[in-house]
Amino acid sequence: MLRTFHSVGQGAFYTEEFDDFYVVYDCGTETGGIKTIENAIVGYFDKEKPIEILFISHFHRDHINGIEYLLSNYRVNNVVLPQYDMALSTIFFLENKNAPPFVKKFTLDPYKTIKSLSPKTKCIFVKSHASRGGDDQLNVVDILDDSCINSGTKLVPTKQVDWFYIAINHLKEERVKIFNSGLLKNNISIHSSSDFEKYWSNKNHKKQIVNMFNKLPGGCNGNSMVVYSGPEGQWSYFSSHFLSIEFNVVQKIHNNLLSVLLDEINRRTGCLYMGDYEANEKTWGVVFSGIR
């Protein structure tokens, strides 16, 4: 496996390349316009090789504005993304101020937006970590389209590789509760994208929604879906045993042998993709309990 952190400025576009497929975590940027992310996509992918999984951390445009180009030009078999209620989706919509039409549509109805570009792509939603429980391991091939899986479920991309992923959807719900409460006080109840469009098209309701949003504390970064990527089997040997070797011993290893060993370590080392996750002592505990 070859892991690449692509240089796209403010945003995120990370890839893992296996022999027969790719896995992607986020695809967007706020730097240099949409061409920055499009050029990064064109310069990397082989169209003959599918993207087995596209993970999406959250719905800010600097993490998703390249998805339209990716879905339109490459074969993406599965999209794994956090499950949000319409209140949180509305907050993301409002935070994506002056975003292009694709980002606005995706924020309010990701399933419909993905299907409009790539009908064969399967969408898998990860429930809030607060409701975790159930499946310990699933192969993405066996998951049905428009399904919801538990946060912390071990996902295997294909049966041909000894690699797995764990998505942790830890939502900071206090901000959403405040927003929902304010909407209800104004007799606004948003349960679907069509509900939002109905209220948003009304001048008074639109003003009430924006006013309620402007009163909210903080931002949505705390709602980034964290994804652990790592190998099955002897990953702990490569990541910890080698690192415990004394430096003077390492110096005595033949350069070619050291190069091979380092290459193997790089290929067999796990990674925690954070999106814009705002970690603290409490939230770190949630993440690490989910990937154990």
Supply the helix-strand structural class: alpha/beta
Q: Indicate the radius of gyration in whole angstroms.
A: 21 Å
Major sheet summary line: 7 strands, mixed
Number of helices: 13
**Total strand count, please?**
12
Mean of residue pLDDT values = 85
Explain what the structure shows.
This protein has helices at residues 34-42, 61-64, 67-73, 86-95, 101-108, 110-117, 174-185, 193-200, 203-214, 235-241, 247-252, 255-267, 281-291; strands at 2-5, 11-17, 22-29, 51-55, 76-82, 122-126, 137-139, 147-149, 154-156, 163-168, 226-231, 271-273. By secondary structure, it is of the alpha/beta class. The strands form two sheets. The chain has a seven-stranded mixed β-sheet. A five-stranded mixed β-sheet has the order 7-9-10-11-12, with helices on one face.
Topology overview:
Layout: E1 2-5, E2 11-17, E3 22-29, H1 34-42, E4 51-55, H2 61-64, H3 67-73, E5 76-82, H4 86-95, H5 101-108, H6 110-117, E6 122-126, E7 137-139, E8 147-149, E9 154-156, E10 163-168, H7 174-185, H8 193-200, H9 203-214, E11 226-231, H10 235-241, H11 247-252, H12 255-267, E12 271-273, H13 281-291
Parallel strand pairs: 3-4, 4-5, 5-6, 6-8, 7-9
Antiparallel strand pairs: 1-2, 2-3, 9-10, 10-11, 11-12
Helix pairs in contact: 4-5, 5-6
